[in-house]
Amino acid sequence: MSTVLPAEWAPQRAVQLTWPRPEGDFARHFAAVERCFIAIAAAVTRFEHLIIACGPDKAALREKLLAGGVRDERLRLYSVPANDVWARDHGPITVFRDGKAVHLNFVFNGWGGKFNAWLDNEITRRLAEQQAWQAPVEDLSFVLEGGAIESDGQGTLLTTERCLLAATRNPQFDKLQIEAQLMHWFGVRRVLWLRHGDLLGDDTDGHIDTIARFCDARTIAYQACEDVRDPHYADLKAMEAELQALRTADGEPYALVPLPMPAPAYDEDGRRLPAGYPNFLIINGAVLVPVYGNAQDEIALARLQPVFADREVIGIDCRALIEQYGSLHCVTMQIPESA
Length: 339
What we know:
The chain is α/β, with parallel strands linked by helices. The chain has nine helices and 17 strands. Strand 15 (about 285-290), helix 9 (about 295-305) and strand 16 (about 310-315) form a beta-alpha-beta unit. It is globular. This is Agmatine deiminase. It holds the Pfam family PAD_porph.
């Protein structure tokens, strides 16, 4: 049986969002967070369909979305209870087995038990019960978040040791056994591991989607840091060296695209927030890039535009999202075409 984990740039049917609740973790920043979600929703529906898991008042939310420029004909709303908004980590990871799509529903345990996640862990199955998905859902007992893996669509997976080898994920497996699991479920032939690279304030134990991303099978955009005074400097320089040492399946070095470090942002308690530019979302015809209201935004967009020459690069203000230690890619999950 042939299994393929498609790259994010493969044709998509839809993107999934899980809508924020006024009483949720974003309560203090709810208005700003909802504006961010509406901006993401409007951008997505310019290019493809949007699936939203939301609270019970779908009519009120639909009205708000349409007023914000979301295209009604591409919008699907489903009432599903949730703990939080991080669809990248509780949404389905889609593979193709002999050309037929399957949604893999891994266990989401709140990034190693840091936060309540029992409702989020049921979202993919509950959406299936409401026929949001066209493909079947397969429940698995392995703990894995979508933000922890990057696929080039050609048999290579990029991930981090800090996350996948965390004792709070799958302590019964060692590194080689985890590689075997990834190869089995995703049909990959190679797993590339990064030991370095972490953003202060990140709750995920070092998700790859915050630090390094495939743009195509030969190109990786990554979070760089050139300020020796920044506490990220040494670790991100070590990650940069790791990326420089990686090779493609045919032995060539990757083309590397360094993205600038955003100006530091802090929460009300003085904790550094995990702002970064690699947390972008690739969709049909566009790349949605988180921006944070500082001078580095335009540099990041300018560096990504030639990499995605066939797509429109669109900045989305995500300053509110980082208040809960995630960004744009973290709140989205793409659903491939024919899925």
